[in-house]
Specification:
mainly alpha; Arc Repressor Mutant, subunit A; Tetracycline Repressor, domain 2; 9 helices; disordered C terminus
């Protein structure tokens, strides 16, 4: 067990991150102040800065949390040795879409900032490190698909991973900041069609099989 003081500090840090997530769902990252985060978390403004030296550092922590959830999906996909790779890939597209649909206001507030951090504009930061670790898991999943004969070996696995990331992030960005009249899950299904149309081996490309549940459970946040 952690010492009580450290446990209290961890709980305090979690409250601050949860407060920031709620506020970023109501306004953009630029609009939200650290004082507002402190008030929502029920702590002093100085306490927020003790945990996070800047709003950018707070955003890095949120990015790390979001990418950690994605990493959990990839680990679950790698742990599933029975399901074909195209089916697992479709499940990733669709379940990412469903998760962002469910928390649309939050992701609309932060997705561009997450994208900047993932691109490595703050090289060596927690968010960039988490993004790199997620990419390594994705490459492992796709490489296993090539070894099984589920995915084309004519394509470099690094190119497949890059195409996957581009389709996922592009589809989400257009939905969040463009026309959201259609459900994101439907757009993500078509994005999966594009990816697997070039990458999958076999006519079905995972369309008809039952999708595995890959998304790890998230702790419920305070209202």
């Amino acid at each position: 067990m952690l010492p009580r003081r450290e446990q209290n500090r961890n709980e305090q840090r979690l409250r601050i991150v949860e407060a920031a997530r709620r506020l970023f769902a109501r306004g953009s990252v630029d609009e939200v102040t650290m004082a507002e985060v402190a008030a929502d978390a029920g702590v002093a403004r100085a306490t927020v800065f003790n945990h996070f030296g800047s709003k950018r550092a707070l955003m890095e922590a949120i990015t790390e949390d979001v990418i950690a959830h994605y990493q959990g999906m990839l680990r679950n996909a790698l742990a599933d040795t029975a399901t074909s790779t195209p089916v697992l890939v479709r499940a990733l597209f669709e379940q990412m879409g469903a998760g962002i649909e469910e928390d649309q206001r939050f992701y609309r507030g932060v997705f561009r900032e997450i994208a900047k951090i993932r691109l490595g504009l703050d090289e060596g930061g927690l968010g960039e490190q988490a993004g790199r670790a997620a990419l390594e898991l994705l490459v492992k999943l796709l490489a296993r698909g090539q070894e099984r004969g589920d995915l084309s070996r004519a394509l470099r696995v690094e190119d497949l991973a890059s195409a996957f990331d581009s389709l996922v992030n592009g589809t989400i960005t257009h939905w969040l900041y463009g026309d959201a009249a259609e459900r994101l899950t439907e757009r993500m299904k078509r994005a999966a069609d594009v990816f697997l149309g070039a990458a999958a081996v076999g006519p079905a490309a995972g369309r008809s099989a039952r999708r595995p549940a890959l998304a790890p459970r998230r702790p419920r946040r305070r209202a």
